[in-house]
Write a structure and sequence with these properties.
about 425 residues, flat, 3 domains, MetI-like fold, single chain, mainly alpha
Length: about 425
């Protein structure tokens, strides 16, 4: 019989680090950190201009270098001819002088007949080039930074709205709680994607209306027509004036020219328009994705507000906002963090889906969604430029998978029932 060991002499129990319970979560965190450093950290470089010009780096390229495959795959004979055709005449003349070959011979050289000097001068794209000769690697970095920024910002917006809404509903209780949660139920019954699409389209229409001022011009044209006919002794209302403008094309053109002088188009710079498109998209996604968060926080606050420490705080006259900030919010950190990590991939997926449909981020500004849409048209039975579709989809899929791993890892860490 082995000798018994007194309890006081027993070795201390090893403490379990909750953040290391999920190996998949650790892998996801490492992947996400690398992806964010790569995409977000290079945004100033990818969005910056090239060589002092006004063209941003993600949009720079020449059609002569279009649809070239990744350099590490090697060029076949057709790609070799296209890569040689992308070189300018001066470069070809310099290579011809070095090799002793004619320019025509260089242009037709393929396979083993390609001199080393010519192969070194070919365009070198790490992940290939797109339809306009732009580097897919640079566009993936810029698109990843934009997609991640929109996803993170939209998720934070939805978390803030859902936390405040759910906490107010649960803390107020009674009829206020019932009315607020019925609103949530009604919004839950509406198609999520349809709401986001409608908000995105409506915001685009508002921006276009602000630029063109078409409603102000139309109103002025109807008023001007009513006044001109009144001077001739004819009386019509605005509805009749609108019908008359539709019927008389020459009169409409004349009044439209005058209206354009009174209400000229407003100017908006291209960077400002891109910023408005991106901001509108993240507000549209974040503004309709807070419903689940509101329900989660409401349930947590309902269970917390009857706890003795909350009742004691209210009994001594602590203000409501201080009760929420000092007593309720610290106990809600766990659910908020877990839901936020699960909301980010959902927001990124929604942004990519809308951009794929042409409603979200609009070209030439890249995102993983519209890059995949551009690559889809390059798959055909004649010559498939597969890299234009594969790499955007691969990065999007791996990022979403890593974020879900992180969410599961955080749930494992914060759930006391899963502790070892």
């Amino acid at each position: 019989m082995p000798a018994s060991v007194p309890a006081v002499m027993a070795p201390p129990r090893e403490r379990d680090n909750p953040l290391t319970r999920s190996p998949a979560g650790l892998i996801g965190i490492a992947f996400l950190v690398g992806m964010m450093m790569l995409c977000l950290g290079t945004l100033p470089w990818t969005l910056g201009s090239v060589g002092g010009s006004s063209v941003p780096r993600f949009d720079s390229g020449t059609p002569r270098e279009a649809r070239l495959p990744p350099a590490w795959l090697g060029y076949d004979e057709r790609d070799q001819v296209r890569a040689t055709a992308a070189l300018d005449e001066e470069r070809l003349l310099a290579i011809a002088a070095e090799t002793g070959m004619g320019v025509d011979a260089l242009r037709s050289a393929t396979g083993e007949g390609v001199p080393t000097e010519l192969s070194r001068a070919w365009p070198d794209f790490f992940l290939g080039s797109d339809q306009l000769g732009r580097s897919l690697w640079v566009r993936l970095l810029a698109g990843g930074g934009i997609s991640l920024s929109i996803g993170i910002a939209a998720a934070l917006l939805s978390v803030c709205i859902g936390t405040v809404y759910g906490a107010v509903a649960a803390y107020a209780g009674g009829k206020v709680d019932s009315a607020m949660m019925r609103i949530v139920d009604v919004l839950y019954g509406l198609p999520y994607i349809l709401l986001v699409v409608l908000l995105a389209v409506a915001s685009d229409a508002l921006v276009d209306e602000w630029i063109s001022r078409s409603k102000a011009k139309q109103s002025w044209m109807q008023t001007a027509l009513v006044e001109r006919l009144a001077e001739r002794g004819e009386t019509i209302d605005r509805r009749e004036a609108k019908s008359l403008l539709l019927e008389d094309q020459a009169l409409e053109t004349e009044l439209a020219a005058e209206a354009a002088l009174i209400y000229p188009r407003r100017s908006i710079s291209e960077p400002t328009r891109r910023f408005l498109d991106v901001a509108t998209l993240l507000i549209a996604i974040g503004g309709v994705s807070w419903l689940t968060m509101a329900r989660v926080i409401r349930g947590q606050v309902l269970s917390l507000k009857n706890q003795p420490f909350v009742e004691a705080a209210r009994a001594i006259g602590v203000p409501t906002h201080r009760v929420f900030v000092k007593h309720l919010l610290p106990n809600l950190i766990g659910p908020i963090v877990v839901y936020a990590t699960l909301a980010v991939p959902q927001a990124i997926l929604q942004e990519s889906f809308l951009s794929f449909l042409g409603i979200g981020v609009k070209p030439p500004l890249p995102s993983w969604g519209n890059l995949a849409a551009e690559g889809l048209s390059e798959l055909n039975t004649v010559r498939s430029h597969w890299w234009l579709l594969f790499f955007p989809c691969a990065l999007l899929g791996l990022t979403l998978l890593a974020m879900n791993f992180v969410g599961e890892g955080l749930r494992e860490a914060f759930d006391p029932k899963r502790g070892r």
